[in-house]
Amino acid sequence: MAASSAYKRLHNLGAKSILKSKKLKEFFVSNAVNHANFASYFRSHSSLSQNSRYGSRYINTKHMCQLVNSNDKRMFIVDTYALVRSLEAQGFPPKQAEVLTGAITKVLNDSLESVAYFFVTKPEMHSYEVTRESSLATFKTEIQSSQEHHFSLLQRETEKLQDHIEKLRCELKYAVDKVTAGQKLDLNLERGRIRDELHNQSTETSKLTNKLDKEIHALRAQLESQKAEVLKYCTGTLVAISAVGIAMARILLMP
Questions:
Q1: What is the pLDDT of residues 197-234, one digit of tens each?
Q2: Helices 36-43 and 94-118, packing angle to 10 deg
Q3: Which of 37, 122, 154, 249 is an S-S bond match for 46, by CB 3.0 to 4.6 Å?
Q4: Of 111, 20, 108, 163, nearest in space to 119 by CA
Q5: Is pTM beyond 0.85 here?
């Protein structure tokens, strides 16, 4: 892919005579497989950019060739010196080799810029992960705070309901006690009234009993007196009859 991009870039630069060279085409074909090495470079590109002040630890600058303009400060990812010498060894003139190396380097840098545009570096990924973890922690904190807030509201509502239920229970107990006390008072009053009525009835019954007893005694005494008189009259009658009989007998017995 890099070889075809370099081929098109050279075509845009106007190097048609160079592109017609069979050696150049063979060079692009033979070096097309090296494009896979650019991915591994990109993975370490972030470390390289972070440690650019220690460039001697990551890139051997002795093998780099500055074939760009004086105002271009980018560092090559290709050993341009070795590439120029390789092109010269395959029969290219030094000027064409330098032009090809510059074009290939520019294409590779543009490709890396395009890749860097669509992908992120490790620091950016780490920053994104830190931001995401911070957002998750903030979200978790908000959720916990919301849960605690709702739990406290629910607890307060529960306490209010419990207080209201306790108040209703006390009012109901007071009403029941009041009704019970009223009923007890009514029952006591009714019991007292019934007791008084029974006492009055008992008194009246006692009076009637005493009166009946007196009347019975009076009737008994009257009967006894009447009996004595009847016996007296009967005795007188018998005596009179006896006297008459005796008199009649004397009269009849006289000669």
A1: 999 999 999 999 999 999 999 998 888 888 888 888 88
A2: 60
A3: 122
A4: 111
A5: no
